[in-house]
């Protein structure tokens, strides 16, 4: 009897050992696979710091043989990249502020005072999500054109805001629904009216929600290419359009292009790692709840 | 109107008015334009042509070709992302030491612009300086350094755009599926173990069914996004060579900007919306059914 328990114990510990070993093995394999998966991006970063002749070498290597900031210098020399970045930033920033402001107000109204309208609205938002960007872009181009706003910041701000508002309402409603109504009531007892209780009590409590919504609205605008390509030409040209112009039929500036692509996306990547918590909560909100 | 409804209306009004002008009106205009022959320069309202724009689009070979390419793009990209995403999600879900760090690595492309993904792959797949061809040559898979003209060969152009899409969006798939996996109660696995189910059986009888609602939503979101892809295709191939990688978005863009055909591009855009709504309603219904169970 004793020996029996001993062997089962041995078996158990052996099994546990294999499992433990297994886990480490899986860990190592997954880490290698993850690094392989991310390697295209690492390769672009490494290429951007190669000398430009090496960046377009006929026998490319993963790691640079020599380091240089040549590509970054020629990126600045070849186009007013800073003003393109500025255009991207200002349109993304203003449209984010507008969408979050409009979206938070509307979401609060829907979440607190009329759940029926709120449900209808969720359906509309879902439908809007199905509408391809290009379908909105066609009439938007005609409207912006007839308003005489082609190639202005306003054109992009209006467009980004209109796409982001339904999304902002949808996200913010999720957050407001999680805040107990007692918060509003307590604020009212303390002498707030509906608007001041919204501003002073509800908004501060829903800061994580506002952060998540802002990140998504900002990223949509910052990453947009289609609308910027369609609605701008010189004055309001954004970074995405600028970067894409390193590659034309007559001009294949691959070295400076990698420098511009890294300058454009690396800050975003670092930022998104820092705020990953919010991004994850925003992305899993709709899809996992159902 | 009750006081409550009034307040709700007040809060909703600014966003409502904005969406009325800049979202609902454009969609209305789109539908209207699809029945008209519109001249971009004179900016008059155009002449009514009935459904001839629709007939013209449906019967054109390029539209049908772009639709087929879009379908191929969606099916191949979404299935590959799904398999890769599920694979990574299951590996991470084993909870090995340092899985949080690996998760962060895998999630880092999450917010990269589709345009940048296109640029990265444009660089890597370049037939002259690209590292992909170099690696294929180094591993003796191909016989010369520029054996495959990824972007200028009509057999590989569409595939190249799909690769860029898969790379960009697998992290999203992984994230959603991982959240779904973590939501499966441990007790389910424990009782399966007691019943003597092996790993493969557990996967097919516990993991997959419990994951189904999340899977359906993830597939839906990605299907819609992949169908409206523009940036990646535009930067990699612009739909070429010989329209071999033309998808609906790039074709509509060209119809609007290069040929100035507002009416026809609007008609295609309306068809595209209807197509996506039909597709997603199928998903939404099956999701609803899965929820009921």
UniProtKB/TrEMBL annotation, chain A:
UniProt keyword Membrane, yes or no: yes
Top-level taxon of origin: Bacteria
A biological-process GO annotation: transmembrane transport
Cell location: Cell membrane
Membrane topology, from the record: Multi-pass membrane protein
Location of the ABC transmembrane type-1 domain: 85-275
Record keyword Protein biosynthesis present: no
GO cellular component: a single term: plasma membrane
A UniProt-annotated Pfam family: BPD_transp_1
Family as reported in the entry's similarity comment: Belongs to the binding-protein-dependent transport system permease family.
Protein name as annotated: Carbohydrate ABC transporter membrane protein 2, CUT1 family
Source species: Gracilibacillus kekensis
Automatic annotation (TrEMBL), chain B:
Protein name, as recorded: Carbohydrate ABC transporter membrane protein 1, CUT1 family
Keyword Cell membrane: yes
PROSITE patterns documented for this protein: ABC_TM1 (PS50928)
Highest taxon, organism lineage: Bacteria
Family: Belongs to the binding-protein-dependent transport system permease family.
Keywords: Cell membrane, Membrane, Transmembrane, Transmembrane helix, Transport
Spans traversing the lipid bilayer: 7-31, 71-92, 104-124, 157-181, 202-221, 266-285
Coiled-coil positions: none
InterPro entries documented for this protein: ABC_transporter_permease, MetI-like, MetI-like_sf
Originating organism: Gracilibacillus kekensis
Lineage: Bacteria, Bacillati, Bacillota, Bacilli, Bacillales
A Pfam family annotated for this UniProt entry: BPD_transp_1
